[in-house]
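COURSE: Structural Biology Practicum
ASSIGNMENT: Worksheet 4, Part C
STUDENT ID: 0417
INSTRUCTIONS: Below are two proteins. For each, the amino acid sequence is given first, followed by its structure token string. Answer the questions at the end about the second protein only.

PROTEIN I
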Amino acid sequence: MAEVSKQAKEFQQKLEELGSERKVKELPDSTRTAQEAADAIGCEIAQIAKSIVFKLQESGEPLLVIASGVNRIDEQKILQHTGEAPGKADAKFVRAHTGYVIGGVPPMGHAEPIRTLIDEDLLQYDTIWAAAGHPKAVFELTPEELTQLTQGDVIQVC
């Protein structure tokens, strides 16, 4: 079994455990960036829910920000909401806390619970797309499902 299939299947199982009926789709091309994902899926880049993991500078805790593919995260807004400045998380930190590699981090189903912030701009779409455990795997969901499954706070991130 290919590595992509194994990771996609594992995330599919986690979705089911969370009560979601959504299905993971594997694509022939990489979806590592929001632009690559939008091109492969055939949707607007703004409909891509990109998962960015930060390491909070004071506590060292992970923070997941799920942002619209067109938005650049304003770290001042994150600081205002969390009370801590977000710092860069390296690949080892991301993998340790989520269980996934950068470019394939899904919005939920992580190795441990992670505080999550959701970009309010995603709420304007009927459906959005997110990574599903591997850079070539994605799944479709509604913004409402995203909020419910992640228990994230919806804020303005840009």
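PROTEIN II
(use this one for the questions)
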Amino acid sequence: MTAEHSRTWRPRHPTDLWQTVGTLRRGPGDPTFRRGADGAAWRATRTASGIATVRYAQVARDELRVDAWGPGAAECVDEAPGVLGEADDPGGFEPRIALIAEAHRRNPGLRMLRTARVVEALVPAILEQKVITLQAHDSWRSLVHRFGEEAPGPGVPVDGGARRPLKVAPSPDQWARVPSWEWHRAGVDPRRSRTIVTAVRRAPRLEEASAMTPADAAARLRALDGVGEWTAAEVAQRAFGDADALAVGDYHLSNYVGHALWGRDMTDDEMVEAMAPWQGHRHRVVRLLGLAGVAGKPKRGPRMPFVDHRAI
């Protein structure tokens, strides 16, 4: 099926498609984002012009292509270079130590993506608060399947030649109308569902944050009851292209960084102090550690428990 709008371009710096855009996927079963059998990244999104399906492809090492379908297709094609990190500038990044320098050398195509979709990033981030990731992904998948809408376009090619349609996540109005029992059915406790409903009712104000400075954007997000430093950072990493958005408050991150770089457990405050030399690129450092395969803390400590909120 021929795309309604397309664009091919050569980015101004090396760009690895999957290293850059893969963080948008909320688990392997995310109905809004899939990797096709053709190797392309397929995404369903909601723009000011309407819903759209977008296909990002790495045509060559130095060439990218976007195809899009639906009312929001033209908008998605216009913004594609920004989504895939065109504005990311690692020029001032100083690796400082050999481990990070080698990871940076081996992964020159890592870019910080920028979707400029605040609510799109915020809702799944809230779902991931204080629960294990698999549980949050299950909730996201369940809610999008139940309350989202089928994305336009041909569907994602899967093995065997079939195509599977994507789903577009609910609009702010649709999120606000999800009944309390449906949140419960999806395993979402009242605190997180209340935070989401409060947030989507302020969607226009939140979307303004994509044009703000990082500090002002974080302040706008954190003004919401139930949105703290961790959640604001998770949004900034995806919606704002913020290379410095360190997810302070993450259940594992401080110990991961502590063991990866200094061989010991760390508190959040100690991590923030220790990461100060990389100010401006702290999220980039965390991504590079992951791409380098650094294990971090040995897996001997307690794990966050699974809490089935449907049984409460």
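ANSWER KEY EXCERPT:
Q1: Residues 130 and 251 are 8 Å apart (CA to CA).
Q2: Confidence is low (pLDDT under 50) at residues 301-310.
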